[in-house]
Structure formats: C-alpha cells, structure tokens
Automatic annotation (TrEMBL):
Organism whose genome encodes this protein: Streptomyces atratus
Keyword Acyltransferase tagged: no
Keyword Heme part of the UniProt annotation: no
A single GO molecular function term of this UniProt record: nucleotidyltransferase activity
Domain Polymerase nucleotidyl transferase: 31-97
Protein name: Nucleotidyltransferase domain-containing protein
Keywords of this entry: Transferase
Length: 260
C-alpha cells in the first residue's frame, strides 16, 4: 500500500487519504474505507495511478448527501491534483452481498452509479487494506473462480470487443492503456485464477509480442518521468496497433477459455 513507497512519495498520498477519510465521515455514515486496485496490489504510482476505494456506509446515500459528496470530491481535486484519480464507491452494508447492485460512485470526475465488480471484490476479500474501520476480509464475500471468470469473459466480449471496432476511442491514452492491460490481466486470470498488477501485465504483453513501441509508451507514462510522444500521427498509429492487438487477443483468449 502507501507504505510500500518511499517516504517522500508516500507522504502526499497518505495526507490525501487521511483528509478524505475525515471529510467523507462528516457526509455519510462511514463504517469502513477499503482500498483495491493498484494501491492494494502494491503497484501504486503517485500522480499516475488511480486511488480505488470502497466506502462501507451504514445507510443509503440521500439526495443532499450526493450533492455534498460531489462538492467534496470537486474541492479535493481543485486543491490536491492527485485527488483527480481518487475514485470511491459508497456501498451500503445491507446491500453489500448483492453483487449486481449499483452503488453511488465518484470516478472520472463525476458522480454516477455502478456495481463493485467481481475483480474488485476478489481484491478486497483476499487482502484489500483498510484505511478506516474493520478490514474487508470476512465482510466482503469471497468471489469464486467461476464467478470471476464469467465476469471477465463478459467484460471482454460485451465491452472491450465492441470498443476495439471504434478507432476514434483509441487515440486517447486511457483506452490504449486499459485496453492492453485489461486484456493481459484477463488472460492470466482466466488461465490460472490469479490477479496480476499492471506492471506484471506489461511483462505479459511483452512476452506475447505486443507492439513494442506501444508497450514502451505505456511503461513510460506509468513509470517514468519526462515528456512523452503526443503528436496526432503517433496517436493514430498507436491506436491502430493497440486496438488490432486487443481485438485479436480477445478472440484468442475467449477461444482458449470459452467457459461452461
């Protein structure tokens, strides 16, 4: 978690999380705050990775509370640049076991509703750290390998495969990064049931023979300081290479792991 970074890297993130925990507790009936994603898996990079959180609350979020949460997040973003990547789902304890239920969520600079996915639930139930209150182990139900695999196959088939046919999306960094990294992580999980970090996914992509210049581009933006290539011709070329590789990779992965 934050403790895996050196002191100078960890301090701003720790301060942001402490401030967020204190302030959100004044808005909702906060019972626990858990981390998943890069922060939980030990691959968090300040200013580059998202802070993926789940807030366990004792009562449904009311209309006025939604407005307060939106104001809280926007204020944090205006004052702390790293807060732009702070995402949080507000899950009512009594609704936690309903895996398909939507929950109030702040992500990508807006408030909306979405479920806590089986991937996030697996991360939580197998060691997601608590930032406040009791840890998720024993509270979040364990996700079976079958449930995890079914979700991953559906995500690849219903979301990422159609997206791979839309060239304009792939001129953006986020689509290139998430497309390739999601594919690699999904294939490993379907193969042997384990979750891997984004850094490990880059190693998998390199071993698969993914376009080397695209893999290097993702690595530089995630792990290295300095300027990065941003010209339109490069983004068009990178997007084509990425989406063709992802599209073919999804076809191969689903054929290798068709499910029951």
């Amino acid at each position: 978690m934050v403790g895996s970074m050196n002191a100078s890297e960890a301090q701003p993130t720790r301060q942001l999380l402490e401030r967020f925990t204190a302030e959100v507790g004044h808005v909702v009936a906060l019972e626990a705050l858990w981390a998943h994603g890069s922060l939980a898996l030990g691959d968090y990079r300040p200013g580059r990775s998202d802070l993926d959180l789940v807030a366990l609350v004792g009562a449904p979020v009311s209309g006025p509370q939604r407005q307060q949460l939106e104001a809280l997040h926007r204020t944090l973003i205006s004052q702390v640049p790293e807060a732009a990547g702070l995402h949080c789902s507000y899950v009512v304890r009594s609704q936690l076991s309903d895996t398909g239920r939507d929950h109030v969520t702040w992500a990508q600079s807006r408030l909306f509703e979405r479920p806590v996915t089986p991937v996030s639930r697996r991360e939580l139930s197998t060691g997601g750290p608590a930032l406040f209150g009791p840890g998720p182990a024993g509270i979040v139900a364990e996700v079976t390998d079958q449930e995890l695999a079914e979700f991953i196959r559906g995500d690849l088939k219903e979301f990422w495969y159609p997206a791979s046919a839309r060239p304009s999306l792939w001129q953006r960094d986020i689509w290139v990064d998430l497309g390739l990294l999601t594919l690699a992580r999904a294939a490993v999980t379907l193969r042997d049931g384990r979750l891997i970090t984004k850094g490990q996914a880059l190693e998998v992509l390199a071993a698969w023979g993914a376009p080397a210049e695209v893999v290097r581009d993702i690595h530089r933006r995630r792990y290295e300081a300095g300027p990065h290539r941003t010209s339109l011709p490069w983004r068009i070329r990178r997007g084509r290479l990425a989406r063709v590789f992802v599209r073919t990779g999804i076809e191969d992965t689903l054929a290798a792991h068709p499910g029951p």
